[in-house]
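Lab notebook, bench 4. The sequencing result for the construct came back, and we need a structural model before the next group meeting so we can plan mutations. Quick request posted to the team channel:

Model the 3D structure of this chain.
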Amino acid sequence: MEYCKGIFCISRNELVDGGIMTASNYKLLAHRNKLTVVRQGKGLGNYALISVDSLPDKYRDLVKERYPNEKETRLQEWIVSNYERDQRATAYYFSKEECGIELPGPTAEEYVTNASVLNTCIKLYDNARAYKRLMGERYDWEQMTSAIEILKVRFGHTLPTSSLRFRKKVNDYKREGYAALISAKFGNQGARKVDFKTERLILSIAVQENKPWAKDVLEYYNAFVTGELEIWDSETGALYDPADFTDREGNPKTLSEATVTRYLNKPSNRLLIEHRQLSYTAFMHETMPHMHRHHGEFSLSKVSFDDRDLPRKLKDTRLRPKAYYAYDVTSGCCIGYAYNRSKNADLVVEMFRNMFRLLDRNGWGCPAEVEVENHLMSQWRESFLKAGKVFRYVRFCAPMNSQEKHAEHRNGGKKRSIEHKNHFGIGRFFAKNPRYRTESTKVFDELNNTYVEKEYYSWDELIAEDMEDIRQYNNSLHENQKKYPGMTRWEVFKRNINPTLRPLDKQTLAYYIGERVSTTIRRNSYCRVKGADWWIDGTASLERLEPNNYKVEACYLTDDQDEIRDMFIYQDGRFICRLENPGTYCTARAEQTEEDERIFIEQRKRISEFNSYVEKRSINRVGMMDARGFKEAVVAAQGAPVAAPVTAQAEDDYENYEFDIGDIRARAAAAL
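Done. Here's the predicted structure in token form:
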């Protein structure tokens, strides 16, 4: 059997002499066009060829039975039928002028055969790839292996039989032409040893943004070394040369998927791959080394702040309330908290107010160090949160580095230990532990991104429950029971207050985190704020005011009952004085109490201070008279004649008068 005109055929002799059909049957079928004669058996040495596929089913089955290897034979004959000796290759390799070197006859014939085989395989590949693309499939180079082997047996070519090396040779041949087949001993590229460069190439392919699998890395590598894919350095733009990744014989280095996987999973390489593939946050939390620390011995030595969204949602907005907490690092106690519907500066300010109310109420000092995040706190970096302003030390944690802030760990501990025990729906939808996993009902609408929680809550309900959770958390056992046996966090906090704390700077606190209201100094003595009269601390404070400007800004701190405790006034950011509210007294003597008498005395003291200030600085009046009249009066009192008026000529003489500078200096010195 063989191919003729692209049709798989069997000869008449094989049909008749092989016993598949008789000569009379063959003539009858041919006469009735029941079979197709592709080539007539006319001429010397020719024999008739009949299309195998045109035979009637009866005889077609006999052919399959007589020739069980028909499929392989069909493939072999089809491949051989596409082989054609390349006459241009013959002219090239047998000509010194064409190829540049004088090749031995057998070598030139070998290269002609190789070139003809490559031409055949390229033609077969193009046809097969076009068919695969039409069918929506991808061509596998392994399918070319049988063709390479068949051509090697039939024509004796010396091309590599492995698909990878053969692909490299095909692409070299496409790019360089006939010169690509000339051996290295005749001036072609020499072999290169496998070295660090190959490993770096694999790693560079592996860190692409699509995060390829090991098998994809191998595919990209094979496409590169065979010339199908160009690779360059993204920083320098320099192209990689496939010739740098060949073995000693000049063939592309063959790698297996297991080899690529092993190199990608080397610990040192895995680190470099994750550095390029992971985000900054993921790399920091999963791969980068972290600091190893231990807590201090005293409470309020360091306080850590952080925000969070409460885990459950509101009924009205379907959003989570925002919370901000302050945690003492040593004891783990939450010593400040605030809530808001938005994550804004007001939330932070209210948290500071809550913390300082607790410290002021118990007479504790100001925390020595605070640990804050950048997002909301950075606006006070050069003022309130500048080291030495309120706190001795201020630590701004690195952005997105949640593991650095102690408050992050406290939030998690409170959530897992107290909130999860007290409430329903505490956890995360992606949690691995099913006990800590929350679920929502998906709404299949046009957005395809809407989820409904099982329950929603009111604002007052969520805030009240979180405050109760804080109370329980503070009064639960400290996590380090070996060091603090039987002691709660609150007990550890109270018994270990740092003795070196500075007192609260209420003046600075009031200006940055206190309430503010514009007011006016009245009657040189008091300001009215929230319906009460607050007296200035002394009349001398008026000297700090700007001319003709009695308007000031009152900044004050309140207690837990929203009562004003400390108030200070500022004008254009300048501190003026502290205000105090002595109160009012009853004017009916019969109804006065000791408190009324104290207030009366306090107010009289302030008025006496005012009178004393005015009297000590009282201004004497001066007499005033016209200068000429004053001179005449002085002369008359002394009995001396009055000087004649100065004439114009006298004025000229005065202008021309030469002063005795020495005399003037002497008289001036004597006057001193």
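The first strand starts at residue 2 and ends at 4.
Will bring this to the meeting.
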